[in-house]
UniProtKB/TrEMBL annotation:
Region called Disordered, residue ranges: 1-23, 41-67
SUPFAM superfamilies reported for this sequence: Cullin homology domain, Cullin repeat-like, Winged helix' DNA-binding domain
Annotated Basic and acidic residues bias: 1-10
Domain of life: Eukaryota
Pathway info: Protein modification; protein ubiquitination
Identification of the protein by name: Cullin family profile domain-containing protein
Length: 849
């Protein structure tokens, strides 16, 4: 290697001493030798003083005129390493790159221009070898290793080290530089191995101390000793070990030795340590205090030795599984002995939750001592043994009671825990089964009909609360809730729909002490149950009948509330469902206009005299069908009907008016001994009371002949006047029922706190005949819908099998119906020549155009 140095300074220098220019490579080489040089004859390479670098100036008589040689004459051979460290720099004035004559083996020679001469361009540097190859002193390796071995023994025996750490470090470094690193590594490993075998013997011979403490002390000492040893042999660890593939670092070497000699699978020490660790963890699970720091340190040892999961975790999980299997079986058997009870199940679930928290804490970074890698498997074992194996038992013994008692917190805990073990579907099925079972008890019993709707609303509110608070509004649970309500509420056909309609009727005509907001909430709750009903036509029929009475008898709480309910039904079922109901409101409004026009016509009002008349003109297609009831009207009332009929026919010629006497009401002014009263009565009640203007005493037979009422209607009317809370008539003999032999007398001593007395409540009550008539009309309407659906399907398909026709009918019809009823309607259409059976296949129907 040669480097050209050019002198750019052409000016002469008048100074007598010149600073010699030295390149970076030259300087680093000089520094290297200077740092490693030692005095000749010295037996140690440590602690030597830095040699002087002497520079001798010689005039070259050869070609290198104007040159200077620099010789490192004070460097001793013992400081020299192999030939790669022996290098020289030299050159001549002509740049031939040769050493000066007679000096081929000089250590280092550097040529440069003379201080007082002019520097010439093209001067070169030449590197030369040492004259004599350096040699190590005798017994150098042996003495150096002896010093290091003594230091290692002192560390193992916890004695002070004779030499300083710097000297030991230099000794290791010198051996590595002289290619003794491989031998040094092997000897060090053997020394450490012998020491660990001695420690193993001590552990086996000790019996009076806990195995955990012995192993912990041995491990702690081993770690401390390996740290000190590595600091001595740091140069070996950072150079030779790193540069040699497949060679373990000093720390890893120490771990390997500890694992092979002490924690090997075949060694009883490891088996005893693992068993002791598992015993300590079980003691802690049983509520005893243990040394967590000791456990944490030993389990960290398993991790450092890379035997945690193979040597400890597998056995730990197996022991955990056995422990919690026994505990869960013991507690579940206690539940069986104590019988079913929500409290017992709730306490068990709370115990499971605590156990899971404890195991997670054992794997936490702060207070725990287990590795985080154990957490997943550990939690899975606990969940399986405490929960997954007993899901059915816990549901059978506790869910019903927890639901009945509305134990929101306990149910939320059950939902959370079951969700962890994938048992949500089992809980959902049990939740649905509970709703169906409880709902059937509310619906199927006729004795609970008076309170059925109230009970259903309370039950729905309670279940919704649990779904929201305990089951986190889980969508599948919400669907199960709706399906369960839809199932049980339709098990008893028609009755729930009827009772819901009557419940709405009560809310809309008894508005005392109820605000509009409360009424709206009650109507919304009724609509919730209405959505579950399949036979909505039954609800419509009863709702329309009750609405007619509220409108005609003016018993509605609020017209706004009525229209709000109508709007809700329209939103739920569409405009076709409420078209007739809207027509009823329209008739009432038109009737008001009729009466305004009637009262403004003196031609008609003068004919009435002192009687005030109010008539509602109803469209027959909108309103319920009422059976005609024949009655003998008094002349005054008959005359009023004739006057209004003349007025209406004058406006609408060609129309026919049919009077519905059963819906008529009257206000009679009566004189009693205690004063005057106004009696609000039905038309039939008014006809009976007017008979007592002529005579104060009448028999049942006389009243029937005078009024022309049927016995059932007359009995209801007389019972309301003589046997109710307000008795305008006195009956002889006194009893709650009316018989044909009874006689009635005007009660002149009647008294009442209010001026107006309402006695026509009987009109609002539904008779059994009215109920049967309503149900019969619904059935007839359904027959018409079934016939229309069959004809519509067959007209489109022309030919269809019986099974496919039944399937499409069930899909299209919106009310529940039995297959036998559908078959009857098909036979009826065949008889009326709408359909015919196929000649070849009697199970196939053909449409007849």
């Amino acid at each position: 290697m040669s480097t050209r140095l050019r002198n750019s300074d052409t000016k002469k220098r008048k100074t007598t001493d010149t600073q010699l220019p030295i390149s970076h490579f030259q300087q680093s080489t000089l520094d290297h030798f200077a740092n490693r040089a030692v005095a000749d004859g010295s037996s140690s390479l440590t602690g030597a003083k830095k040699p002087r670098l002497e520079m001798q100036s010689k005039v070259n008589s050869g070609p290198a005129r104007n040159g200077v040689y620099l010789d490192l004459t004070s460097l001793s051979p013992s400081a020299m390493e192999d030939s790669k460290y022996g290098c020289g720099f030299g050159g001549d004035a002509k740049g031939k790159g040769k050493a000066p004559a007679g000096r081929p083996d000089s250590p280092i020679a550097v040529t440069a221009p003379l201080a007082r001469g002019r520097r010439e361009p093209g001067q070169k540097l030449v590197i030369k070898s040492f004259k004599v190859k350096p040699k190590l002193p005798e017994n150098f390796v042996t003495d150096t290793w002896k010093k290091l071995e003594q230091a290692v023994h002192a560390v193992h025996e916890s004695r002070p080290v004779a030499d300083s750490l710097e000297e030991l470090y230099k000794a290791c470094e010198n051996l590595c530089h002289h290619k003794k690193a491989d031998e040094l590594y092997s000897k060090l490993r053997d020394v450490c191995d012998q020491h660990i075998q001695k420690e193993l013997g001590k552990i086996k011979s000790t019996h009076d101390i806990s195995i955990l403490k012995i192993v912990h002390e041995c491990w702690s000492n081993h770690c401390r000793q390996m740290i000190l040893i590595r600091s001595i042999f740091l140069y070996l660890d950072r150079t030779y070990v790193l540069q040699t593939s497949g060679l373990r670092s000093l720390w890893d070497m120490g771990l390997d030795l500890f694992r092979e000699r002490i924690m090997d699978d075949m060694q009883p020490v490891k088996l005893k340590t693992v068993k002791a660790l598992l015993d300590e963890i079980e003691r802690e699970r049983n509520g005893e205090q243990v040394e967590r720091e000791l456990l944490r340190s030993l389990l960290r040892m398993f991790l450092e030795l890379s035997i945690y999961f193979s040597g400890f975790d597998a056995a730990f999980r197996e022991r955990t599984e056995s422990y919690y299997r026994e505990e869960s079986d013991r507690r579940i058997n206690a539940l069986d002995n104590e019988g079913s009870g929500g409290g017992n199940v709730a306490r068990y679930l709370e115990h499971v939750e605590i156990r899971l928290q404890q195991e997670v804490e054992r794997c936490s970074a702060g207070l725990g001592y287990l590795d985080a890698g154990s957490k997943k498997g550990l939690v899975t074992v606990v969940e399986t043994q405490l929960l997954k194996r007993h899901v059915k038992t816990l549901l059978d013994k506790g869910l019903h009671e927890l639901m009945e008692d509305t134990r929101t917190t306990d149910l939320a805990r059950m939902y959370t825990l079951f969700n962890r073990v994938g048992a949500t579907e089992d809980l959902r099925k049990a939740f649905s089964q509970y709703i169906r079972k409880t709902g059937l008890t509310l619906v199927s019993s006729e004795a609970r009909d008076p309170t059925m709707v109230d009970d259903l609303l309370k039950f729905k509110t309670r279940v919704d609360h649990l779904w929201e608070k305990s089951f986190a509004k889980n969508e599948s649970f919400g669907n199960a809730l709706r399906e369960a309500f839809e199932f049980f509420i339709n098990q008893r056909q028609n009755k729930p729909a009827e009772l819901i309609a009557k419940y709405v009727d009560v809310k809309l005509r008894s508005g005392k002490g109820v605000t509009e907001e409360e009424l709206e909430v009650a109507l919304d709750q009724c609509l919730v149950l209405f959505r579950f009903i399949h036979g909505k036509d039954v609800f419509e029929a009863f709702y329309k009948k009750d609405l007619a009475k509220r409108l005609l008898l003016q018993r509605s709480t609020s017209v706004d509330a009525e229209k709000s309910m109508l709007s809700k039904l329209k939103t739920e079922c569409g405009p076709n469902f409420t078209s007739k109901l809207e027509g009823m409101f329209k008739d009432v409004e038109i009737s008001r206009d009729y009466m305004t026009s009637f009262r403004e016509s003196p031609r008609y009002t003068n004919q009435l005299g002192a009687i005030e008349l109010c008539v509602n003109v109803l469209t027959q297609g909108y309103w319920p069908t009422y059976p005609p009831i024949n009655v003998n009207l008094p002349d005054e009332l008959s005359h009023c009907q004739d006057v209004f009929k003349d007025f209406y026919m004058h406006k609408h010629s060609g129309r026919k008016l049919t009077w519905q006497n059963s819906l008529g009401t009257c206000i009679l002014k009566s004189n009693f001994n205690k004063g005057k009263k106004e009696l609000s009565v039905s038309l039939f009640q008014a006809i009976v009371l007017l008979l007592f203007n002529d005579e104060t005493h009448h028999t049942y037979t006389e009243i029937r002949e005078a009024t022309g009422l049927e016995d059932k209607e007359l009995e209801r009317t007389l019972q309301s006047l003589a046997c109710g809370k307000v008795r305008v008539l006195n009956k002889t003999p006194k009893s709650k029922d009316v018989s044909h032999s009874d006689s009635f007398e005007f009660n002149a001593s009647f008294e009442y706190a209010l001026y107006r007395v309402k006695i026509n409540q009987i009109q609002m009550k539904e008779t059994s005949e009215e109920q049967k008539d309503t149900e019969e009309r619904v059935f007839q309407d359904r027959q018409y819908q079934v016939d229309a659906a069959i004809v519509r399907i067959m007209k489109m398909r022309k030919t269809l099998s019986h099974s496919l026709l039944m399937t499409e009918l069930f899909d299209q019809l919106k009310f529940p119906i039995k297959a036998a009823d559908l078959k009857k309607r098909i036979e009826s259409l065949i008889d009326r020549d709408y359909l015919e059976r196929d000649a070849k296949d009697p199970t196939v129907y053909n449409y007849l155009a």
